[in-house]
Design goal:
The chain has two domains: 8-70; 73-184, Jelly Rolls. The chain is 50% helix and 22% strand. The protein has five helices and eight strands, in the order H-H-E-E-E-E-E-E-H-E-E-H-H. The chain has helices at residues 11-33, 37-70, 127-132, 153-162, 164-184; strands at residues 73-78, 83-85, 93-99, 102-107, 113-119, 124-125, 139-142, 146-152. It has a four-stranded antiparallel sheet with strand order 1-8-3-6. The longest helix is centred in the first third of the chain and has 34 residues, at 37-70.
């Protein structure tokens, strides 16, 4: 997991907001220290405009961040036989099973699907593609009605940083599944 993954997606807007606020406040200080008609007009015209623009920029960042966080964790129900994701798909989410069961299927050489794992309540799947930055290694299909909680890949790294016990569990499972995948490869 790279440090770049934890960078805030709106850094440039936050920096612009800070610069605008500092510029506006700097003009206010100049006006207070040297109160002339010129500095008063300068502060009233540019300083206040910069402070208002800084506030508007910051509110834009706040709104965008809030909106993306709301979509970062999603509850979803899958009916029996419904595909959660397919082998080869882009790995965008890790899924936690709240209730129900799913199966992980891999495409065999002859075109059939082979079940490689059964996933039940309290278990998770989808971490291999996210942690190794590779396409999905298996298709996951609901066996029974299944309730999941999915976490977007952009929020997985920060979440794991705050939950070291769960991070250890995810990484242990990742290592085990990678080992099984390498053993199952045809030679």
């Amino acid at each position: 997991m790279t440090q770049a993954a934890a960078v805030h997606p709106h850094d440039k807007l936050l920096v612009a907001s800070g610069i605008l606020a500092l510029f506006g406040l700097g003009l206010a200080v100049v006006h207070v220290l040297d109160s002339t008609p010129y500095t008063m007009v300068l502060f009233l015209a540019l300083g206040q405009l910069a402070i208002v623009a800084a506030g508007a920029t910051f509110l834009t960042v706040l709104f965008r961040d809030l909106r993306s966080r709301i979509h970062a964790v999603v509850e979803k129900r899958f009916e029996p036989g419904e595909i959660v994701f397919r082998q080869g798909d882009y790995p965008d989410r890790l899924c936690l099973v709240g209730a129900g069961e799913a199966e992980a299927l891999k495409a065999a050489q002859d075109g059939t699907e082979v079940r490689v794992a059964r996933i039940g309540a309290g278990e998770f799947f989808g971490e291999i593609g996210i942690l190794s930055n590779t396409p999905r290694t298996a298709t996951v299909r609901a066996v029974t009605a299944m309730d999941t909680l999915s976490i977007h890949r952009g929020y997985l790294t920060p979440l794991l940083a705050y939950m070291p016990g769960w991070k250890e569990k995810v990484l242990d499972e990742y290592v085990q599944r990678i080992s099984r995948n390498q053993e199952q490869r045809p030679r």
